[in-house]
From TrEMBL:
Signal sequence extent: 1-20
A molecular-function term among this protein's GO annotations: endonuclease activity
Keywords for this protein: Endonuclease, Exonuclease, Hydrolase, Nuclease, Signal
Any Pfam family hit: Exo_endo_phos
UniProt keyword annotation of Signal present: yes
Species, as recorded: Cyclobacterium lianum
Name by which UniProt lists this protein: Metal-dependent hydrolase, endonuclease/exonuclease/phosphatase family
Length: 280
């Protein structure tokens, strides 16, 4: 009898542990590097399977990419059978230019609404803002978790690499748009390559925004032994983090990690993906 009770208790505890993890969601941001033939041998043709397998292995439920051209987005779409994506090219609002696409596991989540706005004084059409070198965008999606019915928003962006004022103003625009779009005060996930480190005013602008926090600060477990860029050079390293995942105050962050995976002494991209395990 005692042995039977112990077995039942063990099964119950195991079931509880599984149930406790079932509400966990793995989100990520990943600058996959645009398809540049001058990157040889680190061309997209050599990296696309590696990038897709990295995503599958680490189990990204929802993730934002940066720098993906239309064919790169489609390459990932083909290699991630359970994922769908939303987003448009920044140059024409269609297929031209880099995407800040949001990929999601369509077996777990449904997109209820989505869109893209430009990081510029005029947010509704392709244009450059302030001192930016290039047009910059933020794509977003309102989603519902199929199992729990939880509604939430995901925003994904890529700030300009040159314009200091553009980055500052881009942060302001995104925070304003989040308030404008998220009228129901739902949970928010904001991912991206912000091209700003944790020492900058623009980063502080985002980290200290009302109702928001950096998953790096909030995580129960942090695995960040490197910065987030590598320039495809394994002989150098940095501690500077410019790719971030911000979340609403009402989201619990269980884990945060910068994934420095390699293959045959090479990197899958010139940025490392940043991953967070969160729950409502």
């Amino acid at each position: 009898m005692l042995k039977s009770l112990l077995i039942l208790l063990s099964i119950s505890l195991s079931t509880f542990a599984v149930m406790a993890q079932s509400d966990a969601l793995t989100v990520a941001t990943f600058n996959i590097r645009y398809d540049n033939p001058n990157d040889a041998p680190d061309t997209w043709e050599n990296r696309k399977d590696i990038v897709a397998n990295l995503i599958l292995f680490h189990g990204f439920d929802i993730f934002g990419i940066q720098e993906g051209l239309f064919h790169q987005v489609n390459d990932l779409d083909k290699r991630l059978p359970n994922h769908r994506f939303v987003g448009v090219g920044r140059d024409d609002g269609g297929e031209k230019g880099e995407f800040s696409a949001i990929f999601y596991d369509h077996q777990q989540f449904q997109v209820l609404n989505s869109g893209t706005f430009w990081l510029a004084p005029e947010t509704d059409h392709p244009n450059k803002g302030w001192d930016a070198a290039l047009p910059r965008i933020c794509s977003w999606a309102k989603m519902v978790a199929i199992g729990s019915g939880e509604h939430f928003y995901v925003f994904n962006t890529h700030f300009d690499h040159r314009g200091v004022e553009a980055r500052k103003q881009s942060a302001r625009v995104i925070l304003e748009k989040i308030r404008e779009i998220n009228t129901g005060s739902l949970p928010v996930i904001l991912t991206g390559d912000f091209n700003v480190g944790q020492e900058t005013e623009t980063y502080e602008q985002l980290r200290t925004a009302e109702g928001m926090k950096d998953s790096f600060d909030a995580a129960e477990t942090v695995y960040a032994n490197n910065g987030t860029t590598n320039s495809f050079d394994t002989s150098k390293s940095t501690d500077r983090i410019i790719d971030h995942i911000f979340v609403s105050e009402d989201i619990e962050v269980r884990k945060y990690g910068i994934l420095t995976d390699t293959y045959h002494g090479r990197f899958p991209s010139d940025h490392f993906p940043v991953m967070a395990v969160i729950s409502w």
